[in-house]
Amino acid sequence: QTSKTAASTSSSIPVHGSDLTDTVSKQTQSDSSNKKGVIYYDSSVALHTLNPFDLHETDSTVLVSPPVVPSALDNNGEDDVALGYMMQPNIVNNTLLFISEGDLYLSNILATSTSEMPAMKLTTTVGNVRTPRINPVYPHLIAYTATYTGRREVYIMDLRKSTTTSRLTYWNHAYGVSSIVGWKDDGLTLVFAAQSTEVGLPDTRLYQLSLEQQPQGDDSTRRRRLSHGPLRVWQVEPVPLAQAMDGVFNQDNTCVYFVRFAQSSNTIRYVGGTAESLWAWCRERDSAVALTTAYRGTDKQPSIVQVKEKKYLFFLSDRLKNVQNSEPGSMNLWAMPLLSEKDLYDASNSTNKVKFTQLTQVSCEFDGKPLVEYSVDSITGNVVLRIGADLHLLKAQTIHDKLSNENEKKNDKDPNKRTLKETKGTITKLPITVYSDFHEQQERLIPVSVPNDVTTVDVYQTAFGGTSALLGLRGQLFVTPVIDETEKVPEYAGAGMNLPRRRYRVAPGIGAGGSVRIQAAKYVPLLMEKDARRLSLVLATDPKSETAEHGFYLLETQSDAPQMFVDVKRLPDPFLGGSKNGGSVADGGLGTVNADSVSVSPCGRRFAWTDLDGRICIMTMPMYQNDTKYQVLAQQNEQGQPMIGTEADLSWSPGGRYLAIKHAARNQFDVISIADIGDPEEGKVNVGRIVQATSDRFNSGSMYWGRTPLDFNLKKQQEVLSQLLGKPLAWSDGASVLYYLSDRDLVADVKSPWGARQPSPHFPKRFNVYALPLVQDEEQRSPLSTTRGPFGGGGASELWVDNVLALQQFLEAAAEQAKQPTRHLLEAAEKDTKRDVKKKKADLSTSPENENIEKLSAGLEEDATPEALTDTETPSPFPQDREIDFGMSQDLSFARRAYRLGNIPEGQYSALFQPMDDPSIGVIESAGGKSVIIIFSAADFPSDAMEPLAVELETHQLAAFSFTTTREYIVFFFSPGNVMKVVRNSAAGLVSLIQDKKVTKNIADTNVLALSVWPSLEYQQMYDDAWRMLRDYFYDSNMHGVDWPLIHSRYRQMVKRCAKREELDDVLKQMAAELSALHVFVYGGEYGSPLHDDKVLDFVHETSSLGATMMRSAEWKGYVVTSIPERDPDFNLVDGKPLYSPLSNTTLELTGQRGLQVGDVIVAINGESVMRVPDIYMLLRGQKGRSVRLDVLRLASGTNTSSTRRILDTKNETKSKTNKKIDEIALIPEPLVTVPISLDNAADLSYSAWEYKTRTRAHQLAQNAGFTVGYIHLRSMSGPNDIDSFFRDFYPNYNKQALIVDVRHNRGGNIDSWLLDILQRRAWMYWQSRTMNITTGGLGWDEQFAFRGHLVVLINEHTASDGEGFSRGVVELGLGKLIGKRTWGGGIWLSSDNHLVDGGIATAPEVGTYNDKFGWGLGIEQMGVEPNVEVDNDPHKTFLGQDQQLEYAIQFLQKWIQEEPVVLPKNPGPHPDRSIDESCSSV
Description:
Blueprint: E1 15-16, H1 46-50, E2 87-92, E3 95-100, E4 103-108, E5 117-121, E6 129-134, E7 141-146, E8 153-158, E9 166-167, E10 177-183, E11 189-195, E12 204-211, H2 219-228, E13 233-238, E14 246-249, E15 255-259, E16 278-282, E17 289-290, E18 299-307, E19 310-319, E20 328-337, H3 341-345, E21 357-358, H4 362-365, E22 371-376, E23 383-387, E24 390-394, H5 396-405, H6 420-423, E25 427-429, E26 432-434, E27 444-447, E28 454-461, E29 467-473, E30 476-485, E31 504-507, E32 518-524, E33 535-541, E34 550-556, E35 576-577, H7 578-581, E36 599-600, E37 606-610, E38 616-620, E39 631-632, E40 649-652, E41 658-664, E42 670-676, E43 690-692, E44 700-706, H8 709-725, E45 737-742, E46 768-773, H9 801-818, H10 825-844, H11 851-861, E47 899-900, E48 909-913, E49 921-927, E50 930-938, E51 946-950, E52 957-963, E53 969-975, E54 979-984, H12 987-995, E55 1001-1004, E56 1010-1013, H13 1015-1033, H14 1044-1055, H15 1061-1073, E57 1082-1083, H16 1095-1101, E58 1109-1113, E59 1118-1123, E60 1133-1134, E61 1137-1138, H17 1145-1148, E62 1161-1165, E63 1168-1169, ...
Parallel strand pairs: 1-34, 5-26, 66-67, 67-70, 70-71, 71-75
Antiparallel strand pairs: 2-3, 3-4, 4-5, 6-7, 7-8, 8-9, 10-11, 11-12, 12-13, 14-15, 15-16, 16-17, 18-19, 19-20, 20-21, 22-23, 23-24, 24-25, 27-56, 28-29, 29-30, 30-31, 30-55, 32-33, 33-34, 34-35, 36-37, 37-38, 38-39, 40-41, 41-42, 42-43, 44-45, 45-46, 46-47, 48-49, 49-50, 50-51, 52-53, 53-54, ...
Helix pairs in contact: 9-10, 10-11, 13-14, 13-15, 14-15, 19-24, 21-22
């Protein structure tokens, strides 16, 4: 009798393999004679079946250009192939520069705007070029930044002659230069932005780079020399502003109009703390002036423009009205009168009175797209605008008319009103044609990295006896052979000998690489089939869907199966989701599936998955049912615990009836539930009970369906008996226990709260292995069992001796009879042993423990096999599950059957498994940063002993592992060497794993495996994928009310214009920004590597640092040291690494050398003059960690020779009298040998020096104010380093009167609750002995280390994310006050796991925060945390070293302490008098 499953077949499910159709919707019903009962094909696809390679197609052509996905075609079905994504325009006198493909292009605006504007490529970079700027005085000079050597630096190009582009900077920071800001009006000074190298908080500042030495003659001489002579760097010096991202100088260079900072999130309509605003600072002034800070939105990219006789400041703004407090809208170009220095600093002329004029209304004219960038032609007055991927022209006359008409509108009722009719047509698209080979659009061959590129893996046996691995590799699907022993595989020698096994691509085809992203592929066992087909369940994004919806496919993957997704004109249909019925869950679609959750039952009949909407979904494989319906499990189990699938783990029972689910309980502990899905033989999902299998008092997980040692022993006996009886036995060998890991045995490694730094309880992640018996009913136990428990050996053996003897006698009789093949076992048993068995039965019948043996005896008596051991039907080819006895109650009785495997010690286990033919248990243990495999080998039954056998390898370390669908194999990934080892999950396989110490056996062939990707297809797929994931990951399913489908269509057409990965990022940023949410970042991905990821090239190009700031000096012919960061002298190691300046005396004194001081001069490095290179750091490339020799003039630290000092004094005296350079007087340089540090360490040194300086200053200011203060600076809230910082500075200062926690520039993280918990501790009692009390180092008070003083938290615009959460918590919990500026505004949290196929990401804020007072976002999201007292650090004063926020905090605390003194409690007085006043007298 065949299985009932065969009767249920699909009539409409596409199974892709032999049929290459787009759909199989017209499949014919099979006749009853078809025995396969699984897959049916449409006869209409016979042509493709017989002609899979298009040999008879008339339109077959050689692929000559990158393909295009049909969903990316225009409405007319034709692809717009015009490429060129134009960004960052710069225009001077109609000469136009812009960036496309990451390179610099040159064009010219012609008189007629309808004429074609050809653009010529000026650069060819592997990295990218940014921010080009034409010199307004010498227009043949072009400055730009580029990444030729890996880091962004400043370069200058001369268009007049064919000369090599000159590199101008070797910036002393790991990030390199940020951008070119522009040229000053003199044409001799270039202004660029870069991360600060001075001691201070890590801010971006403006720097001035002067070309050519300032001559003694007039300015015309300098211009002539610059115009005709070689270009040389004269000096680089900072603009004296601590914060400046962008800016423009007025004509006489007396004032700079600048933007202090830029918000880091891709967010429009942003009003948080780092919203860009315009400021101004003029020379000789002691502070900067805010121009537009009254408006909370964005004002940026300032330019000074002369319109007729009047000067204006042009800028981009998202304001909607000509008032300071308007709400933000779309970005447009605005203008305001340029304020003079007098007007800027005249208090009576408030900047709030300034009138602003809107010059464009871009979003109305360009379908909602914003204005991104602009450039003003300083000669013609025309403005070039960047909207989308195109450049547009706004003519000077139009601007003049708008500004002139402002006065005429004063009498209008609404002078701010702008209509589309008034502005439409004033902006014209520039007809630029980019001539290029667009080489980055050509096919990419990407070498595979294992396991980094492996997204899914499964293993199966081929029809010809080999083992193959099914690999999902960076969105593509491959099959590769598993090589038995790599060391013994001979190289192919020709002549048809030793042909290597083939590996092949399943999907996509060579012409469609990148169009689809395969995210999961699971082998589907076809146990009813005996042919060569191998079927796989595939989860992929459907290229037919415009929004990359997830779809499930069934693909054949055997060696003769044609490739799927062969080209973009013929694509398979999914049987579920995708273009068929995809979309969001709210709209009835499949939503976004958690790819890691896709799980196929070992029997191949069912599969399950979870999605981002928290659903747990189950479906019968489509070939076993008549439709494609799936069922969603209830979101709570019988015990009422929530069962949300977002982070659940799924594990199928072998027969597919039960699904074990690890999920979070209501108290956040992980529990396991088991769902009864119904008998798979019925061909449909029929969900029954969902029973909780573990308690929520601890964590449990890593489920594995297994068997006990008793089961394996019975299995062996059953196999013998089955052979002797000549027929199969019906007793199931399915799983009898569910093994899992649990941390219920808590063992703290901190024994007491006493000691420094308040030791807190800590529980290492220790897990034990537990087993949950699934079968309790005696009727389901094997009649061969001689005991009533799985571990009946040892001292309990004596209880079962009679059972054992009876069974032994029966098997011996059977074995004896097996020697006589002509006689049946039962006949022999009746004749030879029936009398003895009867007697034995009579002897044992009185014992209730021997009922199983009684059954055996009864069978022999009746000359028949016992019914419990027989099957009247042909056995199902599928694994069978034992029916789980959950019990009748709905409490935790079922869960509490579990027992611990006592002979497996606790450990830091992350997973467990069991061989299919052995009771041993394997675990993966993670300890000391390494993962190891341990096999606990089970002793012979009935012993319960377990011997640990660690897999010890010679050179490799375990990097990752995966179980296969059938559980017949385990895949281990080892490093180094990117080795993928396939181990059979059997006793022999694990023995081979232990013995293969060099990892050379059973290795999947991934060597030199490459993927074919067409960027044009992949860019479209990634855009659609990013949009869909934002839809399904974003915490608000209503997408903040934004029309999300409209946003998708608004920016999708721009993707076709992208010819470089960075251009796709630009599209993603604009698209994602429409959510108007913080924590939206676009980064990562596979960008071009200028140094080709060569570590040696990286090292030799990497600039190292001397841990100091220096300034070029032509007078001293060297670099003058301007500062040497001073670290905290109490700490030689900070966070485990040394912190020092290579030039400091602390560093060098132990070598017998003296450190340098500010004012000393470095004239040579390793014998080369520092004046013969553009920058001193050019000589420090590749020197990190190596000794270098410096030749120095000790002008400040003093020379070793008195004569040199005398000469120096004479020189200074002579110079002061004559004010002339004394050439004949020279100093003798001294040698110094030191070791440069990395740029990252140099930045850390500067930051640490600022922390030390600020802490010291806080202590001094507090001391002057008459109180004690502790100071803590937290750079972020993420990880051990910040925990270390808090411990380092809180506990030594817990008893101070005041505490300052400085979270300025805090980058966020997740430790706010821990900090708040410590700060909430309160003192309620005090300790004192005879000699020790709270003032002499005694125990102090309880709660230990509770802070009793007044708390101030310093915040600023760059306090972000969890730094804001901490700040909000301080106020809401009444712990202290906030001083500073409004913070960044990130109140929605994220996990950053929605990565694209190439590793890039457009992050989605996923977890909303709220409370009763503030609602969503805690009043932080998009706004930032408002301080209790607002104090700004003026950018100029901060540059000079002042910290106004810290100074005010000290004043605030001083007043607070005066009003509420922090005093210790008074001594309660004399101790109790326990004496007895008893007089003794004679009685």
